[in-house]
Amino acid sequence: MKKSNDSKVTEFVLLGLSSSWELQLFLFLIFSLFYMTVVLGNLLIMVTVQADAHLLQSPMYYFLGHLSFIDLCLGCVTVPKMLRDFLQRGKIISFSGCLAQIYFLHFLGASEMFLLTVMAYDRYVAICNPLHYLTLMNRQLCFQLVFACWCGGFIHSITQVMLVIQLPFCGPNELDNFYCDVPQVIKLACMDTYVVEVLMVSNSGLLSLICFFVLLFSYAIILTTLRTRFHQGRSKALSTCASHLTVVSLIFVPCVFIYLRPFCSFSVDKIFSVFYTVITPMLNPLIYTLRNADMKTAMKKLRKKYVASFFHSKG
């Protein structure tokens, strides 16, 4: 354990997902594939939305482009460090690096939660008030909503960092995880952390739970409206809502489980952390493309365009 002269911890030891060297090599290969899927999948969605004029004018795909950007960045917060740690015995992270992970993890995570709530509102307007949809969800409002999501994420993440940075660390420095997060870090503080853990629950835990309930309530209204008022286009709308609900469940269930219970930790926390930081950013592109006819059509057009330009340049 490395300490400075005044006995303050200057770095943390990450215990990772496994202590077995053979298993770590196997996990390195698996998570390398996951990381490549995160990067390529989300980049593909961003490029497709930007290249297709029809998608770019649609509020839903405007939000989807931002969601893919957040997922791309979220995957880069923890996975590269984890991959490097799989190939070395000592898994060390500096105190400043730990704070940086906490900041960006919560900044991007909270921004994504707010953005998913905005996307639910977008689907509500599109389905329940279709005649005025484009008027209500104009480009200026879309920009303002996305900006508000980023601002909300920034405020949330700064609050999380402030909870940690004020704590004294002078004793144990082993974190039972593959990255730094508030629940594990505050348990290493050399003081009673009861108040800090309550603040963590009221910030991260309640934020996750409230957004989750708002989303479920929104989609319940949408599904009720689809059942009672519309018949034409119901299948497409149901498919879109199913995609959104799948993404919402993958993100919010792990967050509620991790952040809504202070004072205790379980071994299964690592599995939920993997879902939140790796699996969800990887699955989002697959969910939105495999179940979305507009995205698949736009990707085919993009592929034909690049194939045609390739052969034209060869000729």
Q: What does the model show?
A:
The chain crosses the membrane at residues 25-49, 61-80, 100-121, 141-165, 206-226, 238-259, 271-290. Residues 41-288 form the G-protein coupled receptors family 1 profile domain. Putative odorant or sperm cell receptor. This protein has 315 residues and is mostly helical. The chain has one domain (11-301): Rhopdopsin 7-helix transmembrane proteins (Up-down Bundle). Helix content is 76%, strand content 3%. It has helices spanning 21-51, 53-57, 59-86, 95-128, 133-136, 139-165, 182-186, 194-229, 234-259, 269-290, 293-314; strands at residues 11-14, 92-94, 174-175. Strands 2-1-3 form a 3-stranded mixed beta sheet. Helix 4 (95-128) runs antiparallel to helix 6 (139-165). It is globular and about 60 Å long.
Question: What percentage of the residues does DSSP assign to strands (E)?
Answer: under 5%
The overall pLDDT, averaged over residues, is 84
Q: Which stretches are poorly predicted, pLDDT < 50 over at least 5 residues?
A: 1-6
The CATH architecture would be Up-down Bundle
Relative helix content? over 70%
Total E-strand runs: 3
Our count of helices gives 11
Oligomer: single chain
